Each structure stands twice: as structure tokens, then as C-alpha cells.
Input
Amino acid sequence: MRKKLIAGNWKMNGSVAANEALVEGLLAGIGTPVCQVGLCVPSVYLAQCQALVAGSVIELGAQDVSQHERGAFTGEVSCAMLKEFGVRYCLVGHSERRQYHFETDAVVAAKAQRALACGITPIVCVGETLAEREAGKTEEVVKRQLAAVIHANGHCISEIVVAYEPIWAIGTGKTASSEQAQQVHAVLRSQLQAASNQAGRIQILYGGSMNAANAAQLLAQPDIDGGLVGGAALKASEFLSIIACTH
Ligand code: 13P
Output
């Protein structure tokens, strides 16, 4: 049985004071969750958040990483640097990186490979635009995105986490129905199964306007193994309610 993972993606939000209040609020109410919990925070706050979550059940994540090991890549952060701050997870290929920073499937695959080589679990994000869904291309798009990562990583693929995030559901308040999400998750699961006999243990998260009201239904689906939560991860009570849905 796969453990569920609820990961918060703070995106470009937070401040020293706000982070402290948010993490303290989470720690006050989190107890002993049955799921794994991660927080993907802006890189500049990794040191602060590492100290805040130290000794707790919350694990630290980053939102992006360089595909390169080191060197003349101004503004980039390497996996080795993330490791120094106790980072367990790293998002790769979030749709906002693909869209605004022109990350290709090949770049995303290289980032996943770099993370795996460093012992960081890449959370590989895939998802279709509204136009692609309406054109009936959802499966084709997510399979192409995941195939690049499978191709680059071979049997190591069993160490990744996948996040299905339909772009039309991100930050819009429009959630994929649990049936719509499950359908895509099942497609991704069988693609992973074809690549690795360990695929049964790969967590596939859903992301896109997940909140306290819709989480339980989404998380009840057989192939939905957790959530990648944006806006609702910025309020301790809301994020805790989502975590509680994994019981
Ligand atoms: P929202 O939960 O704000 O829709 O964001 C989802 C997301 O992009 C998480 O990575």
C-alpha cells in the first residue's frame, strides 16, 4: 500500500515572518499524520524552514533545481546546495516553469536525473492546458511529458514522485473532478508500470485547486496518492484539513 504524500507548493509567496507563523501553525496542529508531509518553499527560505521543521514530521522541498552540477549558471541553485539544507523533495517541470521559463521535456528530464543522482526525490509535474484537454489530447500530452523522464532515468524511475496538475485547474478554483483526475492517474500508472516493475510504489499526486472541501473525494481514488497544494497550503488550518483527509 502506498503512503499518501501531501506537499505544499508555496510558489513565490512568504516572508520571514509569514513563514514562521505558517510553520508554527502547522506544527501546532499536525500531530502524527498517517501521510507524509512536504513543504516546497522558495530557495532563499530553505535555511529558515529547515530550522523551523527540524525534528518534526514535515520534510523540506524546493521548487526547482538546476539541471547542471555546478559552474557558470548565474542565478541557478544546484542539487548539492539543496542537499546542504536537508531538502528531501524537489519539484521539477512545474507548469509555471514550463510556461514562463520555457523548460522543455528534455530539461525537465535532466533535472529529475540530477535530483535522483543527489538523493533528492524529484516531484515530476505533468499536465495539459485547457485547449489540449478540449482537443482530446490530455493523455498524449501527459504521456509525452512523463516519457521523457522515464527515458532519461531508466530503472531509477521507481524513486520519483509524479504530480498530475491540469493547467486549467491551477489557481483557478476549477478542480478536475475525481473521475477526471483518476482517469489520467490510471494512464500515468500504466505508463510507469510498463517502464518499471516497481511502479506500484510510485506516488502520483493530484494538484490544481485542491482544498479542504474537495481533498477527501480526490484522495479516495485508487491512483491518487496525495496532493500538490498551492494556494490552500498558505493557510495552516486549510493545509491541516487536507492532511487530515488522508486518515
Ligand atoms: P493551486 O492549488 O493554487 O491551484 O496550485 C496548484 C499548484 O500549482 C501546485 O503546484
In short: The chain has ten helices and eight strands.
